[in-house]
């Protein structure tokens, strides 16, 4: 029996097939990226819980006195037991390190842990942890470049603006201690700053990955528009920009006065 020639695919059929394969590949890639980002977010939340536990453990060891946010002359050593000097010993990572089970996975993770093998490891650990400490309003920023050095003169002028003891906050479950942070080179950062201090700190523009890190106090809303935040009560949350523009989340004074837009002013 005679049969006709085999019928091949038409151009339209080929184009449709290619489009379907491309769409499936794109959907698979997007799905993989979502899964990967979710895993990275879970890693940060877990690290934040361990970090705030270490922070509260340090306070418990010191009668409730919290770690200074930035201190110019504390004793601090690196992983080899060598003494560290300013400014490496002023930032929180090496001062809190004795209370942390392991720097890798708690202070440095999601690729940042490679800093532990770098020649300038001590510097990178001090300045590029994944999460920044709210140094000015929690513990106090005692550095020469601080906008609010916790001196008695400053306290007399503007009131007790920073938290120094666990009992200072009436709402510890809301008070930001650590938050997802970023620096200008794409790494983490050791400090985060509130929306307002003596003047406005954050830009009025909404957060964008193209924004300068300082435009939002070095807070990084990297998890679908949210930042991981560890609070004084030990709880960890994912909070969006609108939530973190609320000064009651940052300042014990703002919380007492119930003022979302609080700004530090002379009394």
Task: Provide a compact summary of the structure.
With 267 residues, this protein is of the alpha+beta class.
DSSP, total strands? 4
Mean pLDDT: 92
Structural class per helix/strand content? alpha+beta
Helical run tally: 6
Written description of the protein model:
With 267 residues, this protein is an alpha+beta fold. The longest helix is centred in the N-terminal third of the chain and has 51 residues, at 11-61. The mean pLDDT is 92. The chain has helices at residues 11-61, 92-96, 121-127, 152-158, 241-244, 252-257, and strands at 131-133, 176-180, 226-231, 236-240. Strand 3 and strand 4 form a beta hairpin. It is built from 6 helices and 4 strands. Strands 1-2-3-4 form a 4-stranded antiparallel sheet. The protein is 30% helix and 7% strand.
Compile the SSE list and pairings.
Blueprint: H1 11-61, H2 92-96, H3 121-127, E1 131-133, H4 152-158, E2 176-180, E3 226-231, E4 236-240, H5 241-244, H6 252-257
Antiparallel strand pairs: 1-2, 2-3, 3-4
Please tag this protein with its features.
alpha+beta, 267 residues, 4 strands, globular
């Amino acid at each position: 029996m005679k049969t006709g020639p085999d019928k091949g695919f038409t151009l339209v059929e080929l184009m449709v097939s290619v489009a379907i394969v491309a769409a499936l590949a794109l959907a698979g890639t997007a799905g993989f990226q979502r899964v990967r980002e979710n895993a990275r977010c879970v890693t940060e939340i877990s690290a934040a819980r361990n970090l705030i536990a270490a922070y509260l453990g340090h306070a418990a060891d010191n009668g409730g006195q919290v770690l200074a946010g930035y201190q110019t002359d504390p004793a601090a050593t690196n992983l080899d037991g060598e003494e560290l000097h300013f400014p490496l010993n002023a930032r929180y990572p090496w001062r809190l390190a004795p209370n942390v089970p392991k720097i890798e996975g708690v202070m440095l993770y999601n690729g940042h842990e490679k800093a532990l093998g770098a020649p300038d490891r001590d510097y990178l650990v001090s300045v590029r942890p994944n999460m920044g400490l709210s140094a000015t309003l929690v513990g106090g920023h005692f550095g020469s470049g601080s906008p609010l050095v916790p001196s008695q003169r400053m306290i007399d002028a503007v009131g007790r603006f920073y938290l120094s003891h666990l009992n200072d906050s009436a709402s510890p479950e809301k008070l930001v201690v650590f938050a997802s942070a970023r620096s200008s080179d794409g790494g983490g950062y050791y400090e985060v700053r509130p929306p307002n201090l003596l003047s406005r700190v954050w830009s009025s523009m909404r957060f964008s990955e193209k924004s300068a890190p300082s435009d939002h106090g070095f807070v990084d809303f990297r998890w679908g528009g949210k930042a991981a935040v560890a609070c004084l009560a030990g709880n960890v949350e994912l909070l969006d920009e609108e939530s973190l523009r609320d000064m009651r989340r940052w300042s014990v004074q703002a919380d007492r006065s119930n003022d979302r837009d609080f700004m530090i002013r002379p009394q």
